Structure formats: C-alpha cells, structure tokens
C-alpha cells in the first residue's frame, strides 16, 4: 500500500478523498517503472493500443495527435515540449497491473485504468480539470504540478484546441515531484503538470465517475432485463370540475410513489449496482481474452490435477470482479453479469473478488469443494483466470 507519511489512512479517507488534494512524498519508496519510454513508444505503434501525443507550440497553442503512430511520427517531433500518453496500461503490461495492488485501500471496482505519460523537458498536456479522482504517481524524472480550485467550470476553456484546456488558470499551489511521490486530486481541481527533464514519466491511476443520468439509464436497463417493476400506475382520487388538460400535483405524487417503491427494493438495487460497477467499457470489452476451444479444454478432473501442481491462478487484467452480501451468501458479479457461482463456498467467492490472484496454498484449500472447482473451471475455460507462469 502507498505510504501516506504525515497522515493515516483514516484521515485520508475522511478528510481528503473526493474533497481536497493531497501531496504524498515518497509514497512508494524506491519505485521503478516496469516500462521504459522506448517501450511506451513501441506500444503506440500498435493498432489496438489507445495512444496520444500532445505538443505545445506556444502559451495556449497545443496540438493533439492520435495513434497508432509510426516511426516517422517520432522522427518529426521537436526536441522538447511534447508528451506521449498511453491509456489502459494495466490491461497491457502485467507489472503495471501489479501497481494497482498498492491502491487496494479503495474498492478495486472503482478504478478505471492506469494511463502512463512520458514527456520531454517542458512537455505537458495543458492546464485542465477532470471529473474523476486520480492519483498521479511520479514514476521517473521530475515534474512541476500547479494546482487551482478557481474557475473549474465548463465555460472556462481555450477555443480552437482539440483538448479541453482551461483558458484562465490562477496558480494557488506549486510543487515539484520526484520518483515515488504521489499527488492525489479529487474531481474538478485544476492542475497543470510540466516535465522538468527528459526522463519524466507519470502514472495516472484514474477512478470511474458516475453521472446521475448514467445510473438512472443503467437501472432502467436492469429492470427491463430482469423483467421487474411491472406494477401499474394508479390514478389519484379525481376531483369534480377538473381541468381535462392539467397534469395535477396529485397525479405526479402517484407516479413518485410508484417509483419510490422500486427504489426501496434493496436486493434489486444491490444486484443492479453490482452489475453496473463491473461493466466493461467498449475498449475493454474488445480486449477480453479468447475462451478455450472445445479441443483445448481438458476434463474437469485433469484441470483439478493441474491445480495441485501449478503456481496458482491470476485474473485477466481486463476482467472486473465484485460481490454483494445477501442474507444467504455473496452474489458474484463479473464484467457486468450476475455470475453462476456453482454453489461455491461464500468465503471463496469473497476471496475470488478481493484478490487479483490465487496462490497454490489458496487452491489447495478451496479446490476440494466441488462448487469451488466448477467455478474455477468455468472461469479458466473463459481465460478470465489463467495459470501463473
């Protein structure tokens, strides 16, 4: 876990999370990036990798290039003032995925992805604010971060630029970050990060943001899929001499009462939100592993034997696991679906959702249960779990 140094975890969660920024010096002592700038550039040449380059030509003059790139792109870049950004690095490089383990003091299902940026001296993506929480880990080199809480509104932007950048940016705080330092930012805090050398690399651990409209639409879809909420609207007691074109307050009250009945169904809300929290975005869905073919799939008995000699099982980094508690046992959710648990043991369901991998010791304790074994076999056939090499 990251080291908060001057405060404890409880203080961070109660006083800083989604409230105000925090500078965390030496949060990951001795951190070394598992990927180099050259490897990032190599990834940006690939079609399936989401990459961008931002070049600053003047004070408020920025150019955005979208990948995939080719080698000529890099040959034509200026010596300074440019930044390469690669999205979804935790889905591409296992050692980057492991970085997420340092942030398990927050729910894993809240994380969106890890973006990694490399910048030459002066490189930056302009002053801006985001609508989500983010931890900015300085992985290599130095970067100056300038912050502001002022003018973080949708109408404060530079026109004619492909990036949503703040036109007015009044610096309130100014820091220099070195490798291992972390800056935490809640939503709608203006920030401007400028590379101070040619070694600058920053990991952005971003968290999902949910707008009310998105939740409402998703809940409606869930009700439709579950065939739920077929209750009928009932009129209020109509008064004599009514206006035939008026929708009265009493009618609206009846509609409100009907909607409130479904929002009070706790079990239904939990199953909906479990699905919602684990659903994949379009890019991630396209990155799911190919399931084993019938020819590649051994018997469950052979699979059980392999569990006893392999090092363990690890989750595919694209997959999202979570669970909710019920009176009977946990309900498992994977990639937006309520998952068949095959009668697996409750503690195993929790372990499966909580841990990014299962060790040989874990497997030796749980695989003797038939339900546990069938669930593992199901997920392995889909390659949502794979053997640790």
User: Structural class of the secondary elements?
Assistant: alpha+beta
State the end-to-end CA separation: 24 Å
The helix count comes to: 12
User: What's the rounded overall pLDDT mean?
Assistant: 95
Instruction: Give the proportion of residues in helices.
Output: 25-40%
Largest sheet: 8 strands, antiparallel
Which regions are unreliable across 5 or more consecutive residues at pLDDT < 50?
Answer: none
- State the total count of DSSP E strands: 17
Widest β-sheet, arrangement of strands:
1-9-6-11-5-4-2-3
Gyration radius, in Å: 25 Å
What is the H/E string?
A: HEHEEHEHEEEEEEEHHHHHEEEEHEHHE
Percentage of residues in DSSP E strands: 15-25%
Overall 3D geometry?
A: globular
Describe this structure in words.
It is a single chain. With 389 residues, the chain is an alpha+beta fold. The chain has 12 helices and 17 strands. The strands form 4 sheets. The chain has an 8-stranded antiparallel β-sheet with strand order 1-9-6-11-5-4-2-3, with helices on one face. Strands 8-7-10 form a 3-stranded antiparallel β-sheet, with no helix packed on it. Strands 16-12-17 form a 3-stranded antiparallel β-sheet. A hairpin with a 2-residue loop joins strand 14 and strand 15. Helix 5 (212-226) crosses helix 7 (266-278). The model has no long low-confidence stretch (mean pLDDT 95).
């Amino acid at each position: 876990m990251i080291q908060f140094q001057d405060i404890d975890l409880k203080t961070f969660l109660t006083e800083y999370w989604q409230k105000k920024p925090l500078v965390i010096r030496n949060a990951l002592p001795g951190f070394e990036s598992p990927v180099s700038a050259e490897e990032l550039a190599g990834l940006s040449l690939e079609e399936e990798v989401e990459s961008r380059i931002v070049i600053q030509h003047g004070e408020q003059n920025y150019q955005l290039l979208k990948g995939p790139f080719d080698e000529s792109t890099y040959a034509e870049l200026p010596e300074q003032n440019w930044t390469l950004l690669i999205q979804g690095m935790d889905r591409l490089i296992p050692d980057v995925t492991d970085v997420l383990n340092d942030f398990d003091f927050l729910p894993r299902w809240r994380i969106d992805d890890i973006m990694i940026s490399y910048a030459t001296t002066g490189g930056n993506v302009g002053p801006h604010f985001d609508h989500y929480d983010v931890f900015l880990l300085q992985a290599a080199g130095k970067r100056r971060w300038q912050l502001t809480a002022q003018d973080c509104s949708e109408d404060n932007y530079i026109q004619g630029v492909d990036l949503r950048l703040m036109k007015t940016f009044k610096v309130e705080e100014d820091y220099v970050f070195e490798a291992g330092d972390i800056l935490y930012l809640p939503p709608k805090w203006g920030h401007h990060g400028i590379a101070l050398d040619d070694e600058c690399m920053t990991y952005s651990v971003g968290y999902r943001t949910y707008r009310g409209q998105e939740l409402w639409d998703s809940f409606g879809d869930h009700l439709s899929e579950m065939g739920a909420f077929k209750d009928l609207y009932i009129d209020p007691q109509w008064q004599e001499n009514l206006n035939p074109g008026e929708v009265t307050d009493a009618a609206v009250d009846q509609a409100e009462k009907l909607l409130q009945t479904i929002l009070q169904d706790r079990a239904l809300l939990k199953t909906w939100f479990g699905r919602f929290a684990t659903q994949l975005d379009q890019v991630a869905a396209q990155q799911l592993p190919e399931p084993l073919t019938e020819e590649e799939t051994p018997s469950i008995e052979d699979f059980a034997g392999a569990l006893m000699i392999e090092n363990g099982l690890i989750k595919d980094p694209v997959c999202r696991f979570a669970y909710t508690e019920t009176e009977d046992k946990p309900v498992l959710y994977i990639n937006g679906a309520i998952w068949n648990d095959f009668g697996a043991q409750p503690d195993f369901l929790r372990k499966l959702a909580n841990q990014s991998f299962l060790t040989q010791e874990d497997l030796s304790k749980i695989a003797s249960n038939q339900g546990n074994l069938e669930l593992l076999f199901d997920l392995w056939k889909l390659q949502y779990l794979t053997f640790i090499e």
